[in-house]
Design goal:
The complex is a heterodimer.
Chain A lengths: L1 H4 L5 H19 L6 H16 L7 H5 L6 H20 L9 H7 L3 H22 L5 H8 L3 H25 L1
Helix pairs in contact in A: 3-5, 8-9
Chain B lengths: L2 H4 L2 H22 L4 H8 L5 H22 L12 H18 L3 H10 L2 H26 L13 H5 L3 H21 L3
Helix pairs in contact in B: 2-6, 4-9, 6-7
Classes of the chains: A mainly alpha, B mainly alpha.
Chain lengths: 172, 185
């Protein structure tokens, strides 16, 4: 069982594993893997705590009801699966600042957290605008040969590469 | 198809959790729970993300289409338009590089102990999705509907049997990955 405690697996083994996992979710749950809708539902659930049932009237939440569903459980499962894997290999470690970030922008947690929050807002907003993320479009869309999936994946990388070069080669 | 299983709410929540567990385990083992690996991909110095995504797409494509041909699965391709998919995709890309995680990998990053992901990123994504839900009524009939795609999948667009696209697409992905390895990337 040494492979369970290894720090890294071949990216191809991981990719093929995710592909096979997709076969199973299509057969057992009639669903493609996706992550970003769960964040929109969570947002609706939090808004509901403050504003009550009025939230359910919002056009968006009529399409994506703020409740715990298959995909929400999937996202929760990712945290548990990753935690288990990291514990098995001894890679679990509480940390605030990734080394690549620290090399350009310093080791202060507060700058990193503020930028992460800002990036998160853009990511969450963009994912719902595009109707999916790197999982829903980038993997599940492309494997279904969806026009939206391939176009979204290309745009994710165009925007991402441009922004990364700006952040690390111009600002950094 | 297993329609009875698909409509059993409790079983589906448990299956979602199990699928997520495996997905998270794989993402962590693949190294993509790490900011450095994801941003390394966007800076074109580390091709792990692309290798994982493309091999998942190729393996998934072959299997899911086979299951569909056997009548065991049906596809759920998302609709799209230039205004929604391309514009949203570019906004997502900016967030992808600024945050250094995406909605799936950030969950894996939280599992690996990254507090910037938990305190900053996760809160940001939920906030961003919430902001979108508020502007959605104004965007829905406007930019989101601009240039709507008539066909959801490439085989529909090309009016061919899906396998005519699946086989060459999977072969092209394999050839591209082989080329990437040959260049030492």
């Amino acid at each position: 069982m040494e492979w369970l405690t290894m720090g890294r697996w071949s990216p191809y083994a991981v990719g093929i594993g995710i592909g096979i996992l997709s076969w199973l979710t299509f057969v057992l749950s009639d669903k493609p893997i996706g992550c970003s809708t769960a964040f929109a539902r969570t947002s609706g659930m939090i808004e509901r705590l403050f504003r009550g049932n009025k939230v359910l009237e919002k056009a968006y939440y009529k399409e994506f009801a703020p409740r715990i569903d298959w995909e929400w459980m999937l996202v929760f499962g990712i945290i548990l699966g990753s935690f288990t894997s990291a514990k098995l290999s001894g890679q679990f470690k509480l940390d605030w600042v990734p080394s690549l970030w620290a090399a350009s922008f310093g080791p202060q947690p507060v700058t990193r957290v503020v930028v992460a929050l800002l990036g998160g807002v853009l990511l969450g907003f963009g994912a719902r605008w595009a109707g999916g993320c790197t999982s829903g479009h980038g993997i599940s869309g492309t494997l279904q040969l969806a026009v939206s999936g391939w176009l979204a994946a290309v745009c994710f990388f165009i925007g991402g590469i441009a922004a990364a070069f700006f952040i690390f080669r111009v600002l950094g | 198809m297993l329609t009875k299983l698909h409509t059993n709410k409790g079983s589906q929540l448990a299956l979602g959790l199990a699928a997520g567990f495996v997905f998270g385990f794989l993402l962590e083992k693949g190294g993509v729970a790490r900011y450095d690996v994801i941003v390394g991909q966007l800076l074109l110095t580390d091709f792990t993300v692309l290798k994982i995504m493309l091999s998942a797409a190729a393996a998934g494509m072959l299997g899911v289409h086979l299951l569909r041909s056997l009548g065991l699965a049906q596809l759920h391709p998302k609709p799209g338009s230039w205004g929604a998919t391309a514009v949203g995709g570019l906004i997502f890309g900016l967030g992808f590089a600024t945050l250094g995680y995406c909605p799936g990998t950030i969950s894996a990053a939280v599992g690996q102990g990254w507090l910037d992901a938990l305190v900053g990123g996760l809160a940001g994504i939920i906030l961003g999705a919430g902001i979108f839900s508020s502007v959605y009524p104004r965007l829905r009939a406007g930019i989101l509907a601009k240039g709507e795609f008539k066909h959801r999948t490439f085989p529909e667009l090309l009016k061919v049997n899906p396998w005519i696209v699946v086989i060459p697409a999977a072969a092209l992905i394999a050839a591209f990955l082989y080329w990437l390895e040959g260049r030492g990337l």
